[in-house]
């Protein structure tokens, strides 16, 4: 069994028990969503960084697995870049205010993907630990489509794990992170923020998310 397969099995065990279930917090989509995220598990492509296996389990508010939902993720790379959009500027990065209205490299797709949840409501993505850009804490965007309903949120990492990962290369090429979970303006919106259960080295992260049946969050 490969290391990746072992981690996948460990993620599945963690998500199957789901000791803590996080009620979905509806949060900002941000400026970097694209409508054609490729169907795939491995979203890394040519990006360098700490390898991360991300597991998400979806359930309804009556604790039933949410199967066959489409789960999308998108994130920046170690240097704050989103695929399809201009790289960080000399002052440090991409921001919502400075985001262009159109993609500048339409065929870029790194760190974007989508999957269908399985019979247990689970999906797993192989990605890298995200970097940072000015005004935002470290995060991954997530969107879930269930029938005609769309849920949008963001997933976060414990600050102490982010500090460790950001001290490593290639993240360390951009020192001076300016925003933590505690100072991020989006982090507390929409309900309790979805902080991932993350290994100390940042290599594995998992979360169980509850989507209320009426399509509303609390």
Describe the fold and architecture.
This protein is of the alpha/beta class and 218 residues long. 11% of the residues lie in helices and 26% in strands. The strands form two sheets. Strands 1, 2, 5, 9 and 10 form a five-stranded mixed beta sheet that branches. Strand 6 and strand 7 form a beta hairpin. The longest helix has 15 residues. The C terminus is likely disordered.
Give, in order, the helices and strands: HEEEEEEEHEEE
Could you list the spans in which at least 5 consecutive residues all have pLDDT below 50? 90-95, 214-218
Kindly, what is the distance between the CA atoms of the first and last residues, rounded to a whole number of angstroms?
Answer: 42 Å
Q: What name does the CATH topology carry?
A: Protocatechuate 3,4-Dioxygenase, subunit A
Q: Give helix % range.
A: 10-25%
Number of domains: 1
SS content category: alpha/beta
Q: Any idea what the CATH architecture is?
A: Sandwich
Largest sheet composition: 5 strands, mixed
Radius of gyration: 16 Å
Q: What is the 3D shape?
A: globular
Count all strands and give the number.
10
Mean pLDDT: 86
CATH class: Mainly Beta
* Fraction of residues in β-strands: 25-35%
CATH superfamily: Aromatic compound dioxygenase
Features:
single chain; Protocatechuate 3,4-Dioxygenase, subunit A; 5-stranded mixed β-sheet
């Amino acid at each position: 069994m490969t290391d990746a397969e072992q981690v996948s099995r460990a993620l599945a065990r963690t998500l199957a028990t789901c000791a803590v279930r996080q009620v979905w917090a509806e949060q900002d989509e941000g400026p970097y969503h694209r409508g054609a995220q490729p169907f795939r598990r491995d979203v890394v492509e040519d990006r360098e960084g700490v390898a991360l296996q991300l597991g998400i389990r979806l359930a309804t508010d009556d604790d039933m697995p949410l199967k066959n939902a489409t789960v999308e993720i998108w994130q920046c790379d170690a240097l704050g870049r989103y695929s399809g959009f201009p790289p960080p500027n000399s002052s440090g990065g991409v921001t919502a205010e400075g985001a262009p209205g159109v993609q500048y490299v339409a065929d870029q797709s790194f760190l974007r993907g989508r999957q269908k949840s399985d019979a247990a409501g689970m999906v797993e993505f192989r990605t890298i630990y995200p970097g940072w850009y000015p005004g935002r804490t470290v995060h991954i965007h997530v969107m879930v489509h269930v029938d005609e309903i769309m849920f949008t949120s963001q997933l976060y990492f414990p600050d102490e794990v982010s500090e460790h990962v950001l001290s490593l290369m290639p993240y360390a090429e951009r020192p001076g992170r300016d925003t933590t979970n505690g100072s991020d303006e989006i982090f507390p919106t929409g309900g309790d923020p979805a902080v991932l259960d993350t290994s100390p080295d940042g290599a594995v992260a998992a979360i169980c998310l509850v989507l209320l049946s009426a399509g509303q969050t609390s």
